[in-house]
Amino acid sequence: MSIKVLTPGLLTSIQDLGRYGYQKFGVIVSGAMDSYSLRLANILVGNAEGEGALEISLMGPSVQMEEDIILAITGGNLSPTIDGKPVPMWRPVYVTKGSILKFGACRAGCRCYLAVAGGYDIPLVMNSASTYLRAGIGGFQGRGLEVGDVLPIKELSEQSLRLLEKLVKKIGLDPFIATAWYIGSRHIPKDPQHVTIRVVEGRQFEYFTAASQKDLLNSPFQVTTQSDRMGYRLSGPTINLVKPLEMISEAVALGTVQVPPDGNPIILLADRQSVGGYPKIAQVATVDVATVAQTKPNGKIWFERISLDQAEELYCAREKTIQELAIAIGFKII
Amino acid sequence: MLTFNEIKEIINMVNQSNIQHFELNHEVTHIVIDKNSLSAAKKENIIPQTADNVDVLSTLSAEGQEKQVSAINLQDDQVNNVYKIVSPTVGTFYSAPEPEADTFVKIGQQVNASQVVCVLEAMKLFNEVPAGVNGTIMEVLFKDGEFVEYGDTLFLVKLA
Description:
The complex is a heterodimer of chains A (about 325) and B (about 160). Chain A is elongated, with a radius of gyration of 20 Å. Chain A is built from five helices and 22 strands. In chain A, β15 and β16 form a beta hairpin. By secondary structure, chain A is of the alpha+beta class. Chain B is mostly beta strands and about 160 residues long. Chain B folds into two domains: about 5-75, no CATH class; about 75-160, CATH 2.40.50.100. Helix content of chain B is about 10%, strand content about 40%. The longest helix of chain B is centred in the first third of the chain and has 13 residues, at about 5-15. The radius of gyration of chain B is 17 Å and the shape is globular. The chains are: A alpha+beta (about 325), B mainly beta (about 160). The interface of A and B includes residues 182, 328, 329 and 332 of A. β13 (about 180-185) of chain A pairs antiparallel with β9 of chain B.
């Protein structure tokens, strides 16, 4: 079982939840920019949450099913279609052999995730299926997909097989059939010019001027086009230190907002370095990293400060939601 | 304030007795039960008419939830032409795919059998409800955010 890449799109790569345990050796974590959408895509098709999926950014690929496939597309709305018919997102879809899945205009969000039941059959590197593009490791041959690539698919899990049984009965003559149930997508920003991102104070917050602290939390910051999987470079009011700071490099995390000498903050994302020497003014709450990832270049971000306790509560609430969804989907498939 | 269970008991008791008309005022709760136009055994044949023929029961549960039960008149010539879209699950009713989006359907709109008329949210999953018949939407019986039981009538459709 496999799918074939007819056109690769702008940047399509296999990502899972990241390569953990090796940062101390300088190995970058990478992984899905919007891990929430990735996890749900896997749950929808009956995979383990952390299975590798295709991360598709801004302009999608066209792929052909070489067998009947169950897939799910989550994340931003990149207008997926088969034979010109829109493919419903956020739910399992049974697609027949030979069908070609295409993507079109980016209507909401910025990137989407294409999970297939069974998962992509690629060798793991340091326990992860994620592609780290700069080092050329992991994923499909360490790179983004290209024309002619064939992605083999592993065997279906028991959960996936049950889902298959349910869907195959309804298929008829259509190229694809979807379930009548789906997951909501509230974290995808509705207005790209007004995206609110919740942050906790960074380790060096106090070293910044009062005016800059205020600016960070009261002005919009535009995501520049020099933004990528490593980080989003923002432009807005310049953020200034009270006085120059000689810092020893220390650990940075997913969502760390660091400020280089030019005063333009950078939100560190999936392909970030393991340590950094720039002062850190804020830390994006884990639950909102996915929202950052779904903001396109030229979108505008407004930072809202919350406490660490609140950030933890949001995190726990979201984990609970994911668990509940997994259970609910399990019942649907019985 | 009466609890949901107390109200449920009152309805059952009146239903099982010979009382034809019952009214109760208790603090913020006002209950009116009228049996003259309602035959309990023939619930399946009940078709709504215009607004002024409808006697509406309104109850408030302890949590402040509203639950509407309609007592309606039967009109012979309308019986066979109206189809009830019935809920396939318990859940929360939403008339639109997203909070600020347009509703799936409007009153007076023609629908076909596979067209989605609403979604019901249960355990964080959204379930699309298709019309099931070709026809015109006559009435929407629930509001956004209201809780729906299995088998509740959601929409009335005038058959094509």
